[in-house]
Amino acid sequence: MPQTLSQIKSLLTAHGLRPKHRLGQNFLHDHNQMSKILAAAELTPGERVLEVGAGTGALSEQLLDRGAELVAVEIDADLEPILRHVLAPYGNRAQLIVGDVLANKHALNPQIFERLGDQPFKLVANLPYQIASPLLMNLLIDHPQMTLAVVMVQREVADRLTAGPGGKDYGPLGVMAQAMCHVERIATLPPSCFWPRPQVNSAVVRLRRRDEPLTDDPHQLARALRRLFAHRRKQLGTVLGRQTPLPEGVDPRARPETLSVEQIIALARQLG
Ligand code: SAM
């Protein structure tokens, strides 16, 4: 049985702690929603799992009970004694990194790959909202060993991950995610599933890496996305210059936000 709300509260109180808003500490206490995350992760015993933002270890324990080889990352050193205690029974199957998951905006903490090695892994996490987007971008572009991700994110981030062309949510994160993965929304959650309640709704999204990603050069795609979406409402001809040759079927008067993922990839190839 996962940690209950009163257990989470007493774990913190016993250590003289309170949830830290600036670190996105909204603890998931709804067991139905926790089960949805676990089911969506389709774990088999012995699989490597990266959990970012382990908190009091509620999700970590459940992942370990399903046989995961877990690398859990938590930035808040105040939570370390709680986590060490929760993870101890699992021995070497549970490894804890106390630190920031990001080394900088474009790179992950190198300790993570010292622990995970080059093996395939899944990301399963109730993500701190502030870093969801740079973390996912980085994993999508630079870490093909991540085969599947099941992540709790702000609903707005879920909308961006799943958006199609034309709307305000469509942009670099969604295009990159959809180029590299099959993306599905698994659940939408109200603030009442968390303590303390966040001000926004949340959603669980699954990203399953494609056997054949739509681009073999995600860095090239990332460069093109930065260029195109810096001026999403301007016409392509204006953004890129009238001389730039466009792929067949792409109108220079079109706005970047109306292009399909495939068209953006074709354009990225042309831009080099
Ligand atoms: N896993 C717990 C759960 O499901 O209830 C807690 C999730 S809470 C939304 C996010 C956690 O991420 C917090 O414990 C927070 O301290 C941690 N965190 C925030 N920023 C982080 C970062 N840059 N690197 C690693 N952990 C971070």
Q: Shape, please?
A: elongated
Give the low-pLDDT segments: none
Number of strands: 11
Report Rg: 20 Å
**Residues in helices, as a percent range:** 25-40%
- Give the mean pLDDT: 96
Structural class: alpha/beta
Strand count, sense and closure of the main sheet? 7 strands, mixed
Number of helices: 11
Ligand inventory: S-adenosylmethionine
Walk across the major sheet and give the strand order.
4-3-2-7-8-11-9
The N- to C-terminal Cα distance equals 52 Å
Structural account:
The chain has 272 residues and is of the alpha/beta class. The chain is built from eleven helices and eleven strands. The strands form three sheets. Strands 4-3-2-7-8-11-9 form a seven-stranded mixed β-sheet, sandwiched between helices. A two-stranded antiparallel ribbon has the order 1-10. It has a two-stranded antiparallel ribbon with strand order 5-6. Strand 3, helix 4 and strand 4 form a beta-alpha-beta unit. The longest helix is centred in the last third of the chain and has 12 residues. The protein is elongated and about 65 Å long. The site of S-adenosylmethionine has 22 residues, from strand 1, helix 3 and strand 3.
Tags for this model:
272 residues; alpha/beta; two-stranded antiparallel sheet; binds S-adenosylmethionine
Question: Can you summarize this structure?
Answer:
This protein is of the alpha/beta class.
Detail the topology: elements first, then pairings.
Elements: H1 5-14, E1 27-28, H2 31-41, E2 48-52, H3 58-65, E3 69-74, H4 80-87, E4 94-98, E5 102-104, E6 107-108, H5 110-116, E7 121-126, H6 132-142, E8 146-154, H7 155-162, H8 172-180, E9 181-189, E10 194-195, E11 202-209, H9 218-229, H10 236-240, H11 261-271
Parallel strand pairs: 2-3, 2-7, 3-4, 7-8
Antiparallel strand pairs: 1-10, 5-6, 8-11, 9-11
Helix pairs in contact: 6-8, 7-8, 8-9, 8-11, 9-11
